[in-house]
Design brief:
There is one protein chain. The chain contains 15 helices and 8 strands. The chain is α+β, with helices and mostly antiparallel strands and 350 residues long. It folds into 2 domains: 3-213, Hypothetical protein, domain 2 (Endonuclease III, domain 1); 224-346, Nucleoside Triphosphate Pyrophosphohydrolase (Alpha-Beta Complex), CATH 3.90.79. β1 (224-237) and β2 (240-247) form a beta hairpin. α9 (135-144) crosses α10 (154-167). Bound molecules: iron/sulfur cluster. Iron/sulfur cluster is lined by residues 140, 143-144, 187-188, 192, 194, 197, 199-200, 203, 205-206, 211. Residues 140, 143-144, 187-188, 192, 194, 197, 199-200, 203, 205-206, 211 line the site of iron/sulfur cluster.
Length: 350
């Protein structure tokens, strides 16, 4: 069977009409590929349009403040993607005269761009035969060729990359790459319907009834649980309320986003115990705290972490000086915040 011909015919008949497919502009392809890493298409679509409306080209992105880029990214997660895109836009303006590099190697050198993204941009925008190997392609090839090498190992990835290099269509590499990713996403899904698959006669996993056992992975993801106790500290002046925010500057999740002063514990703790901790005492030492309201537990799941958060809403005298950022409650929406905080603020009441 001719893998490429069947694949491209299937793509022609089944491809989704997605906004970034109308373009070969490397900036737009780059934006779409970065957004779609770790993000479902239905969610990414909205972010893609919103991102391009705010930053229609490289220059607009480079001239923006990082703060504005994070605000547009709010809710998408993996915020290093946004920080890297912003830095890379500035690099292209400063070191490449504002012109997107045109070779796989030059694109691969840019911050935040790995093999997969460099292959997607160079093939779709510049017609270079560099195969993309993402999770969908790894799953499809491991099944089609009956590869039992774990796909999360260097060896497993190399075997599949070599197969992709043999198969890629040198005349239309961008179309081939998009077809193979779409086939993995829509047809050779984690639980596929092989009965309608045009590849089934050549598929080793199907012929040997081993589809359920492929792909093989060597590691299972370990998640650790973190307990967050957020201090939502408010002051009142006349009828107007302000809240103290804190910028996350440490090398941890959500770097450069804003949340509240935080007490983190390794085990669950009751509000009574939290108020006895050193952190609580050092924040509120000598300050009169009134109107304590403790939220329900908010559960937030990330790839390697589960966060169980409670929000302690307190009021303190207006004149209190804190090393945090005092923000009028009506201006809160200007700040990029993690999705967990966004969820809390949606239910927030005075
Ligand atoms: S037959 Fe099933 S396992 Fe094989 S490529 Fe098609 S969908 Fe994937």
């Amino acid at each position: 069977m001719n893998f490429s011909k069947i694949l491209e015919k299937w793509y022609e008949n089944n491809k989704r009409d997605l906004p970034w497919r109308e373009s070969k502009d490397p900036y737009r392809i780059w934006v779409s590929e970065i957004i779609l890493q770790q993000t479902r298409i239905d969610q990414g679509w909205h972010y893609y349009l919103q991102f391009l409306e705010k930053f229609p080209d490289l220059k607009a992105l480079a001239e923006a403040e990082e703060f504005e880029v994070l605000k547009i990214w709010q809710g998408l997660g993996y915020y290093s993607r946004a920080r890297n895109m912003h830095a890379t836009a500035r690099t292209i303006i400063e070191k490449h005269n504002g012109i997107f590099p045109e070779t796989f190697e030059e694109i691969r050198k840019l911050k935040g761009i790995g093999d997969y993204t460099a292959a997607a941009i160079s093939s779709i925008s510049f017609g270079i035969a560099s195969p993309v190997v993402d999770g969908n392609v790894l799953r499809l090839f491991s099944r089609f060729y009956g590869i039992f090498e774990p796909i999360d190992t260097k060896q497993g990835k190399t075997i599949i990359l070599e197969k992709a290099k043999e198969l890629i269509n040198h005349e239309h590499p961008g179309n081939f790459n998009q077809a193979i990713m779409e086939f993995g996403a829509l047809q050779c899904k984690p639980i596929p319907d092989c009965s309608i698959c045009p590849m089934k006669s050549g598929c080793i996993a199907f012929r040997q009834k081993r589809v359920d056992g492929l792909p093989v992975k060597s590691k299972t993801i370990r998640q650790r649980t973190r307990y967050f106790h957020y201090l939502v500290i408010m002051t009142k002046k006349g009828k107007s309320y302000s809240i103290f925010l804190k910028k996350r500057t440490e090398n941890d999740i959500w770097k450069n986003l804003f949340d509240f002063p935080l007490i983190e514990t390794v085990n669950p703790k009751s509000p009574g115990k939290i108020m006895l901790t050193e952190e609580w005492t050092s924040v509120f030492s000598g300050i009169k705290v009134t109107r304590l309201k403790v939220s329900q537990i908010y559960r937030h799941i990330l790839t390697h972490q589960v966060i169980l958060a409670k929000f302690y809403q307190v009021e303190i005298p207006e004149s209190t000086i804190f090393p945090f950022i005092k923000v009028n409650i009506n201006d809160l929406s200007i700040y990029p915040v993690p999705k967990l905080v966004e969820k809390y603020l949606r239910n927030f009441s005075l």
